UniProtKB/TrEMBL annotation:
Keyword Kinase: no
Organism encoding this protein: Bacillus suaedaesalsae
UniProt xrefs under Pfam families: DUF2243 (PF10002)
Transmembrane recorded as keyword: yes
Record keywords: Membrane, Transmembrane, Transmembrane helix
Transmembrane segments: 12-34, 54-73, 85-109, 121-142
Domain of life, per lineage: Bacteria
Entry protein name: DUF2243 domain-containing protein
InterPro entries registered for this protein in UniProt: DUF2243_membrane
Length: 155
């Protein structure tokens, strides 16, 4: 396997794993534990359960795909820089999930809010976006610092 192939597998795998992980956290925390919202706020409970089921299946697929890609990439030779690259990609994927889910579902499609019915619903939505942006920025800078090394991964 070439350096470029390993790097791509690490890049895609860590991003997809982070994206899926944040989706799983969203589903567990907001959908199940807090019961603030569902993917589609249907008037009947079966519609909510079905939409959440599709969502949970999709993020589970992302977790599995991300894990497989990382497994296929193997261990990077430079462990310290390899860890930074994978952690940065993971955080970038997690932050992008929050940004996409927040912008598309909360604002463009208006499928649901973070905490619908609350007088501060917009504040919750904006905090959700700000958290996603912060996580993505941190991930970007961690990854960016690891990309500067030409000998990051062995052939």
């Amino acid at each position: 396997m070439t350096k470029r192939t390993k790097r791509r597998l690490l890049d895609y795998g860590s991003f997809i794993l982070g994206f899926g992980f944040m989706g799983a956290l969203d589903g567990i925390i907001f959908h199940q534990l807090l019961q603030w919202h569902s993917v589609i706020m249907a008037t009947d409970r079966s519609g909510q359960i079905f939409s959440d089921g599709i969502f949970h299946f999709a993020v589970t697929v992302a977790l599995v795909v991300g894990g497989i890609l990382l497994w296929l990439a193997g261990n990077p030779t430079s462990l310290e820089k390899g860890k930074r690259f994978v952690i940065g990609g993971f955080l970038l994927g997690a932050g992008i999930f929050n940004l996409l889910e927040g912008i598309i579902d909360h604002h463009i499609l208006q499928i649901h809010r973070v905490k619908p019915g609350d007088p501060l619903a917009l504040l919750y939505d904006l905090a959700f976006l700000a958290l996603g942006l912060l996580i993505a920025i941190i991930g970007y800078f961690i990854r960016r610092n690891s990309k500067n090394d030409q000998e990051f991964i062995s052939a």
